[in-house]
Amino acid sequence: MSVTGPAIHIAASGALTAFGDEASTLAALLAGRSALRLLPVHGSEGGDLVPLALCEGHAYEETVLPSWLPHIRKLAAQIPGDLPWGTARYPVFVTSSNFGVGHLHAFRRRGDPAHLAYGTPFDCVDQLVTALGWGPDVTTLSHACVSAHLGLLQASRVLAAGLADSALVFSFDFISPFVAGGFHALKILNADLPAPYQDRATGAIGLGDGAAFAVLTRDRGDFAIAAQCLHNEMHHFTANQADGAGFSACLANLPDTGRRLWIKGHGTGTLNAGRLEATALAHRFPGAPLVSWKGALGHTLGSCGLVELALAIGAMRAGRAPGVIGASAPGFTDTVAFNSIDLAAFDGVVCTSNAFGGAHAALLLHHA
Amino acid sequence: MPSAARTPRSFSTMLERWITALHTEDAGLEEPAATRDRLKDRFPKNATRRMSQLGLLVGTALEPLQPGYDDALIYASAYAETRALEGYLDSFPNPSPTLFQTSIHPSAVQQSLITSQRPIRQFLPLTGGVHLPAQALLTAFLAGSPRVILCGGEERGTWLLDHGRSSDRTFAFALTLASEPVTGSLARVTLDFSDESPHASCDFPLPVFFDHLHNRRPVDACVLPGRRLRIEWTP
Description:
- The complex is a heterodimer.
- Chain A is α/β, with parallel strands linked by helices.
- Helix content of chain A is 28%, strand content 23%.
- In chain A, 64% of the residues are buried.
- Chain B is globular, with a radius of gyration of 19 Å.
- Chains A and B meet through strand 1, helix 3, helix 4, strand 6 and helix 5 of A and helix 3, helix 4, helix 5, strand 3 and helix 6 of B.
């Protein structure tokens, strides 16, 4: 059973990555480039080198006025329509995993209380609301790396209930020593570059900056979200059920539409989760080519679902989707696409994200 | 890219649900060790050792409701895992993987449901400020499941509290919402959408919402500009 009702249209979308906007990002991905660079995990305090993809001008260690704020402003300027976002008929749904928590790290390390202005999730969102001129009707959802999917889902529900005319979903996560230090401590962020879905001896992830938006409506826009699904294993904090049942349970809720689908998977570069994910996707959608772009962008965490959705839309408009970057055969399944895909033969995409706690999210997108 | 045209119109809608069960935990200024000792018998042996204070309290409030796979679970917390966050930040330059994991929203609920191996389809965790209850209630009202569980809470910080970046008290709650009244319903809850006061300041943060639940006090308040919350308790 899908957790959504009627199809919701996407009137506009945009993304920001370490490569720039979605057009620059797609061009880089199609060229097989990676934005990941090996940097000290603790920044100026040193530490092991780890792969990070930072936006140009974004200081990895937080500055009092966030160096990622200009990127947010630039992305927000792309939101069309001059609508009164944050008012009752035009609500905003903000999603992130880290918000401005890097500022708490900076405060604790350097002691400047000015950092506290961005320290809590709602302080950080309030700062964005002020900076972008939104009203108070802003709902904030945070569920690690499936956060963006939840924003899309709740925005869809508000529209389906007739409580809004348009809804803005806005996601962001910018990397800092706070989050990189955590993943490094968990021993999944190391000096290796990620190779999503590649059957190799060791796994690794990279982390990247990301932000994106989507304007949802009931009936305007050339793409439609036909279904959205969730599943939470609640099996283990950092591991999935060993038989992959969690992946299958989420995907089982996507409807069979008869469409010719390609898959934009989660694919961070971890071994066990990648193998389970690829296997479950190949079983649920036999023959559907599977790609992940985190080998080039890094894992953009709470924003990844929306960043990669905006890129998938751009790919469908352009008629070609980038393949898996940073990896090569053998893949976990023969459906893993290491080269770019001509989308002329496809008329829909399944986009998936996964998170700590065995959280799974998936959506089905096609031309309206 | 096409743009979404503005279609202004006035509207008035009221959504209605019924609270069918409610559990609250008002720990106030209690220290985590005292909470752990007080609640340790509610959880499997050794499970509480790595649970946060908020995880213990949210888990205790949730347990009687027996969350099922088809329930929708909505979680609201402005500050969430404050103590784990403080500990993680203090563990640098040798960051603790356990505290990193525990500090991530929505760890408190996951601690409880992972301990009891209780999968759930819909889990929507929210954070926010003075309008958090309004947003969490709307999320719960639209979740579409026959039974919806809304839970939430905060834990009192230490050095983050000194800087005004944590809750000054510890509490948790969990309640079930039904779309139809049932025998024994505790309260009727309505969200009234109106254009009449769109610019009014309508602060209604989570601790205020909690106090109304804990004391079974009625609510008739603007909780977001243009949105009024009413809770009428069954006598």
